[in-house]
Amino acid sequence: MTSSIIPNLENLYDVTQQDNRGYCTLHWRRGKLLVKPLGRIKQPYLPSLDSKRSLVECLQHSPISLISIDPKLGEALLRFWADACEEAKKPIFLSIPAGNKLPNQPLQRLIDWIAAFVLLLLVSPVMLGLIVLMQVYSPGSLFCGEWRVGERGKLFRAMRFCTTTKHNITPLGHWMRKSSLDNLPQLFNVLRGDMSLTGSSCWTLEDAVQLNKLPEITALWEVEAQRHLLHLDSQTL
Q: Exposure pattern of 23-47 as b/e (b: 16+ CB <10 Å)?
């Protein structure tokens, strides 16, 4: 039995119009939402794309289990979707060439987990001391994070000690950056399996956008996905 996923398709939104972030084409495939650069097909107007709050609410009440986004959309739009997915508690992955994805190595992950656990035990007094100093000299948020690309293109927040205030870097923060102590919380990322202590480093969103400009090797799952794509302006599932 087929059913319409959009009740009224008469008023299509002209996606050639752009704002500061730009527009994107959405495809739905078996619980996965693929976010791709602008295509020739007009998409229905989706108010949820106008603000992060609306997009978060839309994602929270949807059956979507995974979002895959194309780095061709640019860093600003990647960050917009990543922030919304984080708040909606939906995993988001970059659709990047198979040859450029970080490999999944179970043995390496086990070694990293053990090493990170031991290191955390050793440096915990240092981290505690830094937290006390930060609260004394620069009260505010203790931790911050920036988006990085991990295994299979998954986006995650790489944790760091906050070294800046609203306007500039603090003297303590400058010293922490110089000595790389601000990166100590990333040991928790290693424990969670987001990143590795050794091997390939994780890319930033800027790296991913630049990497996408290299000659691509299309991933097999992406080829398979193209066979089953359903445009949001389709009449049936």
A: bbbbbbbeebbbbbeeeeeebbebe
Structure confidence by residue, pLDDT tens digits, 59-102: 888 888 889 999 888 898 999 999 999 999 999 999 876 655 55
Distances in whole angstroms, Cα of residue 153 to Cα of each of 1, 48, 198, 202: 35, 25, 18, 10
- The letter for the amino acid at 67 is I
Per-domain residue ranges of the chain: 12-100+211-231, 106-144+159-201
Cβ atoms within 10 A of the Cβ of 146, count?
11
Q: Taking CA 36 as the corner, what is the angle to CA 49 and CA 20, rounded to the nearest 5 degrees?
A: 45
Nearest to 35 by CA among 3, 4, 66: 66
Kindly tell me the sign of the dihedral angle through the C-alpha atoms of 10, 22, 92, 101: positive
> What gap in Å lies between CA 232 and CA 62, rounded to an integer?
14
Tokens representing 210 are: 């630049």
Q: What is the total residue count of the chain?
A: 237
Fold of 12-100+211-231: Transcription Regulator spoIIAA (3.30.750)
What pLDDT score was predicted for residue 102? 56
Which tokens is 37 given?
Answer: 């650069």
